[in-house]
Amino acid sequence: MVTVSRTGTAVTRGLNALRSRATGFVARHYLAWRSRRGLDPMSLIPDHALMPLRRNGLDPVPALREAREDHPVRDFPLPFGVKAWLVTGHEEAREVLGRTQGFSTDFGHLVGRAGIGGGQNPGGLGFTDPPEHTRLRRLLTPEFTGRRLSRLGPRITEIVEGRLDAMAELAERGEEVDLVRDFATPIPALTICELLGIPYDERDEFQALSTARFDLLSGATAVFDKISESLVYLRGVVERQRIEPGEGLLGMLIREHGDELDTDELAELADGLLTGGLETSASMLALGSVIVLRDPEVARMVRDEPGSVHGFVEELLRYLTVVQLAFPRFATEDMTIGGVDIAEGDGVLVSLSGADRDPRLTPNPEIFDPRRPPSPHLAFGHGIHRCIGAELARMELRTAYPALLRRFPDLAMADDERTLPLRGTSIVYGVDALPVTL
């Protein structure tokens, strides 16, 4: 038997920490050198590291299922010697996401270890640890209770009906109707404008700030430029509302907690709601429409059976799981997950799309079954970082799909599904255009 003293273990951990810091130092300087020469750092990511973000049509690639079958927690090396693990099993994913201690999602880890970010911290809830995360979430939670959100119900209905009217007008003029441009994107964009108190005439700018940051093929520089643009814009919105608070969430936070939150914090919270609620709901509305238009029986059920929409939406959330990866986590202590030893300092990537296709979650997970009993899926995450706007997203989906199919019972895709411009490598999976006939 080989024994290791506590002193020896401490020395080993110290050497590992030193090696990690040195690797991060070299990575940051090398990436800065590449950026100065116009070379995109994202080109350094090996193909295997992008596997969890790839799909065949609407389904995760077989390699993700094979990874889970091999082991639900497996070694997943990243560039610059970053030690990481990929979690694809549902039980193991819930364990990681549900831990209140032992993991950090602080953005500084990404900057320090992988050398990305250019110093631009998006802040918000997702990249913040307790107790700061606890403080910020406590301020937001009252606005996302069912009772508070119910006041948005009539406005969401108006927004949906307005988009359906606009689609009908386009068709009457003989113009193309694109379900992404004319329906799926404007509905969550206008809803979040309503929630935050963003002026209606700024909706196009507001909407454009979200999409590019999720597409890793656009490059790290483009992604972080979009984050920077968004925060600059939202700081301006916050500064205007400090002078004249509106009736939305930003105005409420300024009136009730203005002394507790500085302009940067408010902008970061608004940015988190923008990115968490716009692109995700837009992708769900668009890709969910593809599924509906594939199967006339599903379309009939959603259109004619009001009681079916809740189960339909839950199965759609599980099946699509458009947010493919959870916020990266870094272990702050040694632990064991799924029988695998994870060391302090290791990175952990949770594949939400892989976990929601785990047969331990539900039988035949590769099949879309709108009458399947709802399962504890991870489409909104789990634990302290679970999407705070989950119920708002559900309201949008439950309102939009039946209204769309009742207004246009003969709705059909204008092009072959195989030609749809699905995103190649995006944290939030989606489609960039969906031409339809009404």
Automatic annotation (TrEMBL):
<dbReference type="InterPro" id="IPR001128">
    <property type="entry name" value="Cyt_P450"/>
</dbReference>
<dbReference type="Pfam" id="PF00067">
    <property type="entry name" value="p450"/>
</dbReference>
<protein>
    <submittedName>
        <fullName>Cytochrome P450</fullName>
    </submittedName>
</protein>
<dbReference type="InterPro" id="IPR017972">
    <property type="entry name" value="Cyt_P450_CS"/>
</dbReference>
<dbReference type="InterPro" id="IPR002397">
    <property type="entry name" value="Cyt_P450_B"/>
</dbReference>
<keyword id="KW-0503">Monooxygenase</keyword>
<keyword id="KW-0479">Metal-binding</keyword>
<keyword id="KW-0560">Oxidoreductase</keyword>
<comment type="similarity">
    <text>Belongs to the cytochrome P450 family.</text>
</comment>
<dbReference type="InterPro" id="IPR036396">
    <property type="entry name" value="Cyt_P450_sf"/>
</dbReference>
<keyword id="KW-0349">Heme</keyword>
<keyword id="KW-0408">Iron</keyword>
